């Protein structure tokens, strides 16, 4: 499943704060994973960890689904370049955290839209939802996009770390629908750099975690309120 050259994303809990890192697999041997020293997602500095430090690790599989497993630091390998050694998943036991090709999440991200053929004036708007495969966006009243029409989108994706990532992609319009009186258009990405698609998937994963935490918090608050009436 996981292979040499794969990019991995690492999360650790430090004094109740979640810290995120990114690295690449350099080698695999006897169930251990050898990686480049992880880079902090917020300050871009390499991280150094003691033996036994625990992580949740996720990566994008060959089927473009996200796979997660738990691991811990086993030490440092002194090879041609120093490598951090992680414990690999036992018996290839991964958690698949999505059932379709890409996780689609509701999010209001800034997006600029340009017609490839000059059929409409450029406009800026907000997404309605987003995935690694495409997006839905709020359409202006005077926009007349038709099915199959190609256009370019420029997305601005704000991460929790404070970093804003900018994505350029070519998309194809699929259809529009009206939601509470507003036109929402859906489109599929037709040309996008793989690295940019992975950034979108990472953004969607982060948004999904935020949504899940809010739902759990709301559920817990509801339980507390019910207990008050017992």
From TrEMBL:
**Where in the numbering of this chain does the PilZ domain appear?**
98-206
Q: What is the lineage of its organism?
A: Bacteria, Bacillati, Bacillota, Bacilli, Bacillales
Source domain of life: Bacteria
Keyword annotations for this protein, in alphabetical order, are: Cell projection, Cilium, Flagellum
The answer, when asked if Plastid is one of the entry's keywords, is no
Domain called Type III secretion system flagellar brake protein YcgR PilZN: residue spans:
3-89
Q: Does the keyword Cell membrane apply?
A: no
Annotated GO MF terms: cyclic-di-GMP binding
Gene3D superfamilies named among the record's database cross-references: predicted glycosyltransferase like domains (2.40.10.220)
What protein does this entry describe?
A: C-di-GMP-binding flagellar brake protein YcgR, contains PilZNR and PilZ domains
């Amino acid at each position: 499943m996981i292979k040499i050259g794969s990019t991995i994303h690492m999360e650790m809990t430090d004094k109740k704060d979640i810290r995120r890192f990114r690295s690449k697999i350099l080698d695999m041997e006897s169930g251990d994973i050898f990686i480049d020293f992880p880079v902090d997602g917020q300050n871009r500095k390499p991280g150094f960890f003691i033996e036994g430090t625990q992580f949740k690790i996720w990566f994008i599989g060959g089927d473009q689904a996200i796979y997660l497993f738990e691991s811990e630091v086993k030490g440092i390998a002194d090879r041609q370049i120093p490598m951090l050694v992680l414990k690999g998943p036992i018996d290839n036991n991964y958690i698949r955290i999505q059932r379709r090709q890409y996780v689609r999440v509701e999010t209001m991200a800034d997006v600029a839209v340009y017609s490839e053929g000059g059929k409409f004036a450029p406009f800026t708007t907000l997404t309605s939802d987003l995935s690694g495969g495409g997006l839905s966006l709020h359409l202006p009243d005077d926009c007349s996009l038709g099915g199959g029409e190609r256009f370019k989108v420029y997305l601005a994706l704000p991460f929790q770390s404070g970093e804003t990532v900018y994505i350029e992609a070519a998309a194809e319009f699929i259809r529009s629908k009206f939601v509470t009186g507003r036109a929402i258009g859906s489109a599929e990405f037709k040309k996008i750099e793989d690295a940019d698609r992975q950034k979108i998937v990472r953004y969607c994963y982060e948004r999904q975690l935020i949504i899940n935490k809010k739902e759990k918090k709301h559920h817990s608050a509801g339980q507390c309120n019910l207990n008050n009436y017992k």
